[in-house]
């Protein structure tokens, strides 16, 4: 079976944990898009690992991990991540780790441009150079991995590209120029090390599928951060929704068998942008503290709020998820009264579908349905039937509101804190 795992809210839904949990049953794990703006946390044997570029299947033995063509790669960060994983005992060789030859490279001028000016502040980007690297890709001026690992081509393209970037940095942002020589000296060393991992990954993945191997696709970010379907312009620069899985890997949609959306039991968002169910009160505080809601990449506190079923229903529509995985249900224990947003209201009018215009969205108020909570600590529960009745009711309501079944419920960050409910 080939399965895509996609974030169904504003990112940080627990994709890393679920990918790590599911990897056991797959042969190949493929990261589809985004870059080191992502932070995917996995906890194995009480040890936490945060992955930014490498697929979250890497801590499972004997799996092939692939970074797809849709990913933008900061070579320095990738090498640091590889070293840190090797220190933890992970095996990373040219046989089990592959990087797409068509993936684009993030260079220091992309990072500088992402940090310059006030746009990144307005959006609240991660300042990792993601937007500027995708801009170069779509301008058809980017440097791809196959060019990066060819010294002469890299030098030529770097020289061409950096002139424009320095013009912007100097004249537009009043910032320091970047030396092409320095970038080349440092980054051509990284290219030399990474060269052996670079391959035609679409060929490798499709061949694996031909050979009846199973492939797990790991999305980054979430549908509401999608450049097309998210809360534009408060989004990232790629397509975290299901379409991005195919364009980001060179695998046809016809070869995917299932797609699961990861949903937090409540909602979080890091960075700026509209968030109708945001709680700026003691319950929001409580979710942040108990849920340990701090960005895995930037350490920024995440904004917290009630579950927004307008969002999850929209997400189910965009992606046709075969099921949802609900994470962090344990965090809701001890909250007397829980709310789920079932629709929005604007000037007395009920809105059921997620608006395209963020100005409309910002003037919407959530319509809530209220549920009795549960007191019990559920973080040790391994069977669905053992969950408190009110927790089951809450989950059933989510299924009903999204017309999508729930296949897995996560009740803690560890691999074993996972309840398998039924078919994915
Ligand atoms: P990702 O970007 O979607 O992979 O998610 P992150 O790793 O950025 O954020 C999810 C956070 O929640 C991490 O700290 C996880 O260890 C943690 N986590 C995942 N699932 C659960 C869960 O079911 N319960 C609790 N309490 N924490 C979880
Ligand atoms: P994972 O994969 C949550 C957010 C940033 C900012 C916006 C644009 O861990 O779920 P960017 O640097 O991408 O140009 O920033 O997108 N963002 C994320 N939020 N989880 C992520 O990834 C994110 N990646 C980007 O905070 O609001
Ligand atoms: Mg994250």
How would you sum up this structure, described in words?
There is one protein chain. This protein has 424 residues and is an alpha/beta fold. Among the domains are: 103-197, Adenylosuccinate Synthetase, subunit A, domain 2; 263-420, Adenylosuccinate Synthetase, subunit A, domain 3 (Adenylosuccinate Synthetase, Chain A, domain 3, Alpha-Beta Complex), CATH 3.90.170. The protein has helices spanning 15-23, 75-87, 108-115, 119-123, 130-139, 145-148, 151-172, 180-194, 201-210, 242-247, 282-290, 309-319, 358-362, 389-402; strands at residues 3-7, 28-31, 40-44, 47-51, 64-67, 72-73, 97-100, 104-105, 198-199, 215-218, 258-264, 267-269, 303-305, 307-308, 323-327, 337-346, 349-351, 365-372, 406-410, 418-420. A 10-stranded mixed sheet has the order 9-7-5-2-10-1-11-15-19-20, with helices on both faces. Strands 14, 16, 17 and 18 form a 4-stranded mixed sheet that branches. Strand 19 and strand 20 form a beta hairpin. The longest helix is centred in the middle third of the chain and has 22 residues, at 151-172. Bound molecules: guanosine-5'-diphosphate, 6-O-phosphoryl inosine monophosphate and magnesium ion (MG). Guanosine-5'-diphosphate binds at residues 7, 11-17, 38-41, 43, 292, 296, 327-328, 330-331, 410-413. The site of magnesium ion (MG) has 6 residues, from loops.
List the helices and strands and how they pair.
Elements: E1 3-7, H1 15-23, E2 28-31, E3 40-44, E4 47-51, E5 64-67, E6 72-73, H2 75-87, E7 97-100, E8 104-105, H3 108-115, H4 119-123, H5 130-139, H6 145-148, H7 151-172, H8 180-194, E9 198-199, H9 201-210, E10 215-218, H10 242-247, E11 258-264, E12 267-269, H11 282-290, E13 303-305, E14 307-308, H12 309-319, E15 323-327, E16 337-346, E17 349-351, H13 358-362, E18 365-372, H14 389-402, E19 406-410, E20 418-420
Parallel strand pairs: 1-10, 1-11, 2-5, 2-10, 5-7, 6-8, 7-9, 11-15, 14-16, 15-19
Antiparallel strand pairs: 3-4, 12-13, 16-17, 16-18, 19-20
